[in-house]
Design goal:
It holds the Pfam family DHODB_Fe-S_bind. Heterotetramer of 2 PyrK and 2 PyrD type B subunits. One of its GO terms (biological process) is 'de novo' UMP biosynthetic process. This is Dihydroorotate dehydrogenase B (NAD(+)), electron transfer subunit. The chain has about 240 residues and is of the alpha/beta class. The chain folds into 2 domains: about 90 residues, Translation factors (Elongation Factor Tu (Ef-tu), domain 3, Beta Barrel); about 140 residues, Nucleotide-binding domain of ferredoxin-NADP reductase (FNR) module (Rossmann fold, 3-Layer(aba) Sandwich), CATH 3.40.50. It has 5 helices and 15 strands. The strands form 3 sheets. The chain has a 7-stranded mixed beta sheet with strand order 10-9-8-7-11-12-15, sandwiched between helices. A 6-stranded antiparallel β-barrel has the order 1-2-5-4-3-6.
């Protein structure tokens, strides 16, 4: 883990208030699916923003983010040729399964790390299904890209694209294992409904992202505590207490 000054080579809005930024470095960036980066937005924003990796080719990474506040709105103004300081790669990523039939469940900006995972699963001969949840048609993204590697079901809260309702209504009954990334209520519902093994990639507010500040500490089901940034963000199903 180290810092990199990366050049913006592509930056575009891919859905409502949702941006994809591709950054390039001159040295090797050793990332794996499920890991994330901590991006420093221009001053006066002193805190970095944790963003999941949608892909990495060694010297080029792509991340997807939503503009929630002033910091991410500032990031959205970055142009091609400008530089961004990146800390990473951070956290523990996904472990590829032994099982043959794999289901991916993503909610909103939880979809990007699953796209990279889907690519790796497909490369390793796994049968992959993916359930992608969004609020409405304006926020749907990466459907076509995911279809290159998986059988995809899109679900929206209002039914404006794909199926209507919650992702838990459209799960693959034939899956042997699942991987999920999205809001905690979604992860909690999946754990309650599914009896198969699974892995959850958690989204938490972070400070340092290296395990020193304890801003992202969560309780485990055995009474201990873990830091999402350092010990996660991917945890086996049932390890942590989901709020």
């Amino acid at each position: 883990m180290q810092t990199y000054d990366m050049k913006v080579v592509n930056h575009r809005e891919i859905a409502e208030c949702t941006y994809e930024i591709t950054l390039q470095t001159d040295v090797f960036f050793p990332a794996e699916p499920g890991q994330f980066v901590h991006i420093l937005v221009d001053p006066p924003h002193q805190l970095r923003r944790p963003l999941s990796l949608a892909s990495s080719s060694g010297r080029e990474i792509t991340v997807v983010y939503k503009t929630f506040g002033e910091g991410t709105r500032t990031l959205a103004n970055k142009k091609r040729g400008e530089t961004v300081n990146v800390l990473g790669p951070l956290g523990n990523g996904f472990t590829l399964p032994e099982q043959k039939k794999v289901m991916l469940v993503g909610g909103g900006v939880g979809v990007p790390p699953l796209l990279w995972l889907a690519k790796e699963l497909h490369k390793n001969g796994k049968k992959v299904s993916a359930v992608l949840g969004f609020k409405s048609v304006n926020q749907v993204f990466y459907r076509r890209k995911m279809e290159e590697y998986a059988e995809v079901t899109v679900v929206t809260d209002d039914g404006s694209s794909g199926e209507k309702g919650l992702v838990t209504k459209w799960l693959d009954p034939e899956a042997d294992v699942y991987y999920a990334c999205g809001p905690n209520p979604m992860l909690k519902a999946l754990e309650a409904q599914l009896t198969i093994p699974g892995y959850n990639s958690m989204e938490e507010r972070m400070g340092c992202a290296i395990g020193a500040c304890f801003a992202c500490t969560v309780e485990t089901k055995d009474g201990g505590y873990v830091n999402v940034c350092k010990d996660g963000p991917v945890f086996p199903k049932g390890r942590v207490k989901l709020p």
